[in-house]
Amino acid sequence: MTSFPNPCEPRDLRDLPGCTTLLVLPPEIDFCNADELLHRILSAVDARADRLRLLVLDLTRTDFMDSQGVRLVEDVRLRLPPRVRLRVVAVPDGFAGRVLELTGVRRDVPVYDNLGEALEA
């Protein structure tokens, strides 16, 4: 039997140096999993409340994202504690990157082309 990953879980959660947490998001973000992803992201933030200063959402593996994905990024931004900065990584010509560009999310949330840029900025 083939095991499929849970679409409501971030693919990877890593604590990086400098009070940074990286969350690699799933290949698809839509109405089926956006609410649960928001809950899991905010739970990760709460679990690190005393030390988190930078949250990086990695959308480089996200092949599909509808308006719920845009809402997810905006909701995370609005619900983060004031001391925590949010950065997003998305392939510029990829689906998620184009959606973020077309919807204007890039005006409110820094979006970087690769993880290295997001961590160095």
Structural shape: globular
Q: How much helical structure, as a percent, in the residues?
A: 25-40%
| Main pleated-sheet profile | 5 strands, mixed
> Segments where pLDDT lies below 50 for 5+ residues?
none
Structural class: alpha/beta
Number of helices: 5
N-to-C CA distance: 44 Å
Order of helices and strands: EEEHEEHEHHEH
Please give the order of strands in the largest beta sheet: 1-2-4-6-7
Kindly estimate the percentage of residues that lie in beta strands according to DSSP: 15-25%
**Average of the residue pLDDT scores:** 88
Task: Offer a concise description of the structure.
By secondary structure, the protein is an alpha/beta fold.
